[in-house]
Amino acid sequence: MKIWALSGLMCFWLVFSQEAGAMRVQPSLHKACDITALANGKPEKLNLAEGWEYYDTVFLEPSMIHSYRFKPIARTLPELWGKSFSLVRSAKFGIGFGTYHIALKAPKIALGIRFDHIHTASKIFVNNDLVFENGVPGTNAASSQPMVITRYYYFNNESDTIHITIQVSNFHHQTGGITGMVSIGTETRIRRMEYQHLVSDIFSINLLLATSLVFLLLFVFRLQDKPQFYFAVLLAIVAARILFHNDALIYGWVHLSFSNAVRFNFFSQNLMAMAIFGYYFTLYPTPRLKIPNIIIAVILALAGGAGFFTHLYDLSLLVYYNQYFLVGVSLYGLIVICVRLFLRKHIAPLFLFAYLLFIVFSILELLYRGSHPELHMLFTLISIFLFVTSQIALLAKRQASLLKKQEEMADELAAANQSLEERVHQRTVMLERKNKSLQQSKNELEHVVKTKDKLFSIIGHDLRSPLSVINLYSEVLWEECDNDERRKKLNYIINSSTSALHLLENLLIWGKKELGGVTLNPVFVAVDGLISESIQSFHGISESKKIKITSDCDDSVVFADRFVLLLVINNLINNALKFSYPDSEITISSRLISPAPDGKVMISVKDSGVGIEAGTLKKLREGLGNISTRGTADEKGSGLGLLIVKEFTQLNHGELLIESEPGKGSVFSIILRTKMWS
Asked: Confidence band (pLDDT; 50, 70, 90) for 493?
């Protein structure tokens, strides 16, 4: 309980210490403070806290100090102007203007003076010389221009008494007066202090940025670990705040107005709160507090947005009171850590110890910022180091835990791989056996294919030849015969032999297709020439049935297999001859129905034969099987012709259309492409 009490007292001291310091009043006036001990080198530096004279609501030159008619007020630095301090009738806290003066009995040596945090505009005189002007001090907001920069002044003292006069005004910030310490010492000591502050800030900035970069890279390579991202952002913001609070670093590169400095202070505080909030809530997520967390995040975002529209003085108040929220967020983090300790999480004890030390040293750093610059620098370094190292320890432990889990998963994966290799070996042996069986089946299949090819060759030669001879001699006898009865019998022989030949051709080509023996060789084919060749092959049967075959073709060219296309057209003409009446006409036409680039050609075979019934026509369109029908001369049919037409048209990337009406004839059309296809 002691440590919790100590932390509470320190937080209370942090909030109210500056206001309490403003009420300290020293009775001694018009006496020179003795700093001649600086000549002996011990001490090398003195903080000028006592002996200051303050002249309220008036700007005095050094030569006017002792002749001014009103008695000054004794003050002790550093101090914060309070509401009741200034004689200016203003309801705003810290508003006012006046003059500070101190007389020093000094040795005749090289000296240095440090002026720290004079709010918010000032003129500084050493003896009768104007050595610095921070902004423009004025008697009202319109005549003053704020700026707060820490100054160093070095000179060789040649008089027994040094007079320091500081004109101060504030109309733009809730903090007024000399809130930092004025220090005097040997030139060597003050320059060393200046360099120490510079080196300290540079070291802190580099440490914070380097650590932020490391954790940002870790987040990039491990996107699911969000605490690393928030921690990296937090460190970057802290580094930026240190940079912008070091006058030697920031003002040597850019000009930053006072209003922009205040706004940066506010927005960086707000972003720090958001980063801390996001860090702890992602580090130790609490699902039950999801909605309150979202509400707090929205409030932070709205508060940050409100900063763009807030008056400068009111914004400085927000900066002041925003410290309470940062303390609250830090205490929340402390509570979270304690809960983790209660739950016996192994990282919590170490983290709790480091976090408590960080809070203590942060409070000490704020308390001694003005009065003891050396302690401020020391506590700054210690607090930053403790914070960074404690968080690194926590996140490193998380990474180690993740790596351990990955190693365990890798071991499990290795065991699974070994088991898988054994199973693969077993499967390989089984596959080798099956491959031998498949190889044997392949050999048997190759033997069957060879037998098939031999059978097709025998059928194609031994059957086609005698049928061709019968058909040829029948046509010769028909032409030489003048007996009608004999001609009728010869017509029957010609039709039967032609049908048999056609059926044989269809069976051979269809069988090859089903067995995978048909290989397409598509080329550009002139349609009119192919149709003329097909008509010529049916001259005998058309003459025997007294059917006229005519053509009406344009000069269209299609991309298809020539042999297969000829087979399709032959089947269409043979089908038309089979179902046409004697003394009728069959018309074969070709037309370009779609221009380039997606050109299409329609080849149609039209007859005036028996036509097709509606039910049969539906089956033909839907491809529901082979339909065998006898022709007008009692020709036998297998239904294989139309099946070949449909399938081989599709092989050539075409389509089949059928139109028919019973008693009026039929129109069979195929549509083919004019451009190449693969």
From this structure: confident
Measure the N-to-C terminal CA separation of the chain; round to a whole number of Å. Answer: 86
Most confident of 392-406, 410-424, 500-514, 633-647: 410-424
Cα–Cα distances (Å) from 344 to 324, 347, 399, 563, in that order, read 30, 9, 19, 86
Residues with Cβ within 8 Å of 561's Cβ and at least 6 positions away in sequence, in order, are 520, 521, 522, 523, 651, 652
Distance CA 37, CA 19 (A): 32
DSSP at 677: -
How many Cα atoms are found within 13 Å in the side-chain-facing hemisphere of 276? 21
CA dihedral 460, 461, 466, 470 (to 10 degrees): 60
- The residue among 168, 94, 88 whose CA lies nearest residue 136 is 168
Per-range mean pLDDT, top range of 141-145, 321-325, 347-351, 513-517: 141-145
Measured CA to CA, the distance from residue 312 to residue 259 in angstroms comes to 7
Helix intervals (H) in 368-463: 373-462
3-class state of residue 72 by DSSP? coil
Whole-angstrom CA distances from 448 to 436, 438, 454, 463 are 18, 15, 10, 22
- Looking at 246-343, list the stretches that DSSP marks H as alpha helix, in order from N- to C-terminal side: 247-250, 258-283, 290-306, 312-342
Number of C-beta neighbours around residue 279 at 10 A: 23
**CA 319, chain centre distance (Å):** 35
Question: In this structure, are strands 96-105 and 33-34 parallel, antiparallel, or unpaired?
Answer: parallel
Distances (CA, A) of 609 to 208, 502, 605, 662: 98, 20, 12, 8
Please provide the average confidence, as pLDDT, over all residues in the chain: 76
Give, in degrees to the nearest 5, the angle at Cα 674 between 560 and 519: 15
> Crossing angle, helix 290-306 and helix 258-283, to 10 degrees?
170
Structural domains of the chain ordered from first start: 17-190 (2.60.120.260), 195-402 (1.20.1070), 519-673 (3.30.565.10)
pLDDT surpasses 50 at 352: yes
43 token code pair: 């001490």
Pairing of strands 600-606, 665-673: antiparallel
Predicted confidence at residue 79, as pLDDT, reads 84
Give the amino acid at 564: V
Nearest alpha carbon to residue 250 among 215, 198, 196, 209: 198
Q: Helix, strand, or coil here: 493?
A: helix
**Paired tokens of 13:** 């001291």
Q: Are 232 and 216 in contact (CB under 8 A)?
A: yes
* pLDDT for position 407: 79
- Residue 330 and residue 363 in contact, taking contact as beta carbons nearer than 8 Å: no
